[in-house]
Amino acid sequence: MNNKFITFALLGAVLTSATTFLLVKSNKDISEGETVTQLWQIWKKTYHKRYADPDLEEYRLQVFTSNLEYVKQDTTGTLGITEFFDLTDDEFSAIYLTENFSQNEITAEDIPIDPSTNINWVVKNKVTEVKYQGKCGSCWTFSATGAVESALIIAGKAEQTIDLSEQQLIDCCGQSYGNKGCRGGFKQQAFNYIYQNSITTEQNYPYKAMEQKCITDKSALSPNYTISDYKQVDISTQALAQALLVQPIAISVDAKQFKYYTGGIFSSCDKTIHNHAVLLVGFQDNAWIVKNSWGTQWGENGYIRLKNGNTCGLANLAFYPIA
Question: 267: which of 71, 76, 101, 204 lies 20 to 30 Å off by Cα?
């Protein structure tokens, strides 16, 4: 992997025996042979976790232990300890995997991309910083704003530091667009809203990770940015790679196993299921490069690499804005 793109600073658990893990954070090794309780204490400190009472903490420790047991079975080298280790799979899905989708989706033609293909919009400084959606099912807004931010930068209409307001989409791009705020939405409908109304900056309309009343005061929504249109990518991996040559693309994926991802080329997912919206920003070293919205402590500094092909269904529902 190009070192200019991602510095590998992983928080992960690597299986060294049936009961022993090595926890790694910011290249600082913590000694082998840690007990589950010791790992739990390290994990709580790392992610600033606190619980309301001892009974709740005991339950969360049981969930943490169950997740550790699951990771022990991993043979891919891509799974480990993450921020989400005190959540059951159902809890994780209910909070983070909330992108809306239609029932008549089509699975893309799956033709692997030429492994020598080299596209990396992060290296080109056309991708904004990784953001954190918190405990709000607003991935659809981050996928959309990330795509619009990159489109504006590439078109010369904004600086690389542009930061558009996901909260405006949560509050204002609601039921009339088929969206449910923190309970899920469609990234393409976020593009539709921006096309019809424009969108302001994070500074003007800050992120609260909760649904609020839409702010309509035009003075509060200035400066603002818009797009001239948005399009769906033809449903094939080859069409997706061609579109990616022009700009980053908002995509949908099956992210059930992202809960455990700590690094490497990932493929433990279903290409016919979609539950999470993210931003495709490159293809390099025979893998897709994807920007997530779970902060920089997750994955590879907030990114994940997906196996060449229609991994996790990334080519099925791809859209891009036209700046």
Answer: 101
